[in-house]
Amino acid sequence: MEKIGIIDLGSNSARLVIVNMFEDGYFMVVDELKESVRLGQDMEKDGFLKPQRVAETIKTLKMFKRLCDASGVTHIIAVATEAVRRAKNQRSFLDEIQTSCGIKLRVLSAEEEAMLVYRGVINTMDIPKGIILEIGGGSVKVIYYNRRNMLNYASLPYGAVTLTDMFADKEMRPEEQVQKMEEFFADKLNGLEWLNEVEPDVQMIGVGGSFRNVFKINKMVHKYPLDTVHNFVLATEDFMPLYEMIKVLDLDKKKKIKGLSQERADILPAALAIIKAFITKLNLVSFTISGSGLREGLMFGQALPSTLEKPISDVMNYSLTTLVKYYDCDAKHVEHVVNLSVQLFKQLRVLHKFPRQYLKVLKIAATLHDCGMRIKYYNHQRHSCYMILNSTLYGASHREIVLAAFAACCHKKEDINAYDWNRYRDILQDDDIEIVKRLGVMLRIAESLDRSMSGVVKGINCDILGDSVIMKTEVEGDGSLEIRDALGAGPEFRKAFRKNLEIL
After folding, report:
1. Which residues contact 338 (CB under 8 A, 6 or more apart)?
2. How many C-alpha atoms does 170 have within 13 Å on its Cβ side?
3. How far apart (Å, rounded) are the C-alpha atoms in residues 386 and 374?
4. From CA 176, how far away is CA 182, in angstroms rounded?
5. Three-state secondary structure along 438-486?
6. Computed over its alpha carbons, how large is the radius of gyration of the chain?
7. pTM to 2 decimals?
8. Contact 466, 454 (CB under 8 A)
9. d(CA 369, CA 387)
10. At what angle do helices 90-101 and 51-71 cross, to 10 degrees?
11. What are the tens digits of pLDDT across the range 445-478?
């Protein structure tokens, strides 16, 4: 297993991620370090990177290099974006970094940067048609795609740092500055004629640290139970009060807002003004926040070069396979339990009447049902529940993740704590508890039918006769252990489906 380091040097911050590269094109982030260097600050005056900012950046990159060396990183991929791209002293800066830090920085073109952001999003989100708004310190990327093909992009050289510098005026109240930023950026968007051709049902996807801070503040305000930013959907009606609150505050008051990074407090109003101008331009009722972007685009290009030409077709399955490898689950047992779960779902459809979307939930639960054993065997279903709730799982909504976590919690017995369930009331719907119990008992039976983890039970055929379900197993070898274990789910099956369970 190779370990690589990826350094992303932006106009506002520098970030290092250390990544374990598995076989067959899978990877997992195992460490991260971020520093606010403000490399692009004060560049508007003469176009030069300032000595103080350069010194801070060198100090940070030396620290990154030490961590990479200590972590056993064999290869470092380091890229720089807008600030370095337009710096008049770019060449001397790059030479100084190479000499003092031993790191070779590659300066991305605007097109390369947009493509990497797109790859980071398209390979981690199941949104076939979207418009990406990536807010950096020195630039903003607008990327439109449909049917998983990038159609248009624009790179506007006005990010959260540059806009803050441009409209810094002690004579103006904070809200006046923000209003001018919003009007300025709205005018720049009006210059993108292709934006007028974007289809009305397109989904906006927000990328970057400012969006992550918006999530954190909203989480604190609304006591949102999940820590997962990726795939979080924020309604415009929830964004607007946040925008109106922050734009009138002075810097000291902004720094006291829970969830807001103090290093980002001064530039967040500019980022919010950009978002407001964008949702007004497209008349959006909500937007989705992505936790993936440029760095993930680099990771996919390194781990799975085929994504340079064509994105992953099944985002969720790729993500689940990654987690199976990372948690060191028994891949053959996982595959068999998933297959048996799918068979049960389809053959019991006349009883549960669930739409196909719940098969997706069951697949997540079946794939990760045993991951909690990495913590402890006893009560591992509860650990699996926690790990699913906190895993990096792509291609699934927050509600689907919560449902899958609780379904996995039922794969040994019905084991849903009322307190835990009520924590997620804002994500769940009224009848979800019954859905989880039915999915959970199907998973329990499927897992029991591979109790020896030897694939003895090859298939299932269910007949629904009166008040009973007759489950006939297709067996190669002795399946007595599997059938006996599966019959232990009879009481839960009766409660969930109001039918007696017989297994032959």
Report:
1. 363, 366, 367, 446
2. 0
3. 12
4. 10
5. HHHHHHHHHHHCCCCCCCCEEEEEEEEECCEEEEEEEECCCCHHHHHHH
6. 26
7. 0.94
8. no
9. 10
10. 40
11. 999 999 999 999 999 999 999 999 999 999 999 9
